[in-house]
Amino acid sequence: MGIVSPGFQGRPRTQEPALPPGQYLTEDFPVLSAGPTPRVSLDTWEFVISAENGSEHRWSWQELMALPQETPMVDIHCVTRWSKLGTTWQGVSLDTLLADVDTGAHFALAHSYGGYTTNLPLDDLRGGRAWVVHTFDDAPLPAEHGGPARMLVPHLYFWKSAKWVRGLRLKTMDEPGFWETAGYHDYGDPWREQRYQGD
User: Fold this and answer.
1) Helix-strand-coil percent breakdown of the chain, rounded to 5?
2) Is residue 58 packed enough to be buried (19+ CB in 10 Å), middle (13-18) or exposed (0-12)?
3) What is the mean pLDDT of the chain?
4) By C-alpha distance, which of 163, 82, 69 is closest to 116?
5) For 66-103, what is each residue's pLDDT tens digit?
6) Which of 2, 53, 89, 139 ranks highest by number of CB atoms within 10 Å?
C-alpha cells in the first residue's frame, strides 16, 4: 500500500455560503497596512471632493459629524483571503457627500493621509454602496484600522476602502492607485476573485 502525501493545502475554506470564492472566515480584525500609520488630529482633518472642473467641496470633522449618519452592517473581504461577516460601522454615505457636486466624471481616485491612493468607478460610490466611516462596533475607528475616518466600499476587496481617507479626486479617465499600479486588479470584485491584473 503506497503512502500518499496530501501536500500543503493552505487554510481550509469554511462552508459558510456567504463567503466569496477563496476566502476564509475570521472572527478577529487583521491589521494590514502598506506603510506607517498616520496620526491625524481632528482639529486639522478634512475631507475634500475635487471635481474635474476644479471645484472643491470641503468638510471639517465637525461638518462631517453634522451630516446625516448611517449605520451600515456589512461583510468585508480582504484580498489576502480573510472575510469578516456582519461588521457594523457608522458614517456618512457618499451619496450625501456627492449630492451637490456638479460632475461629469466616471471615476474617482481616493487619497489618504500618508499618501495612499486607490481608484474606483464613481458609480460604485453611489446608490447606498459606499461611506466615509468614523465608528466601528460602536467605538471610534482606531488609527490602525484607518481612523479617524476611512472609506467603506464593502462590495469590493477591502484595499478599495481607503484608510485615513482625506478626499476624492473625480476624473474623466481611470487612474490606477497604489496597489493597482503594483499589479492588483483595477476593480477588485471578490465574488469574481479579481485579485490581480488578468483575473
Assistant:
1) 15, 30, 55
2) exposed
3) 91
4) 163
5) 999 999 999 999 999 999 999 999 999 999 999 999 99
6) 89
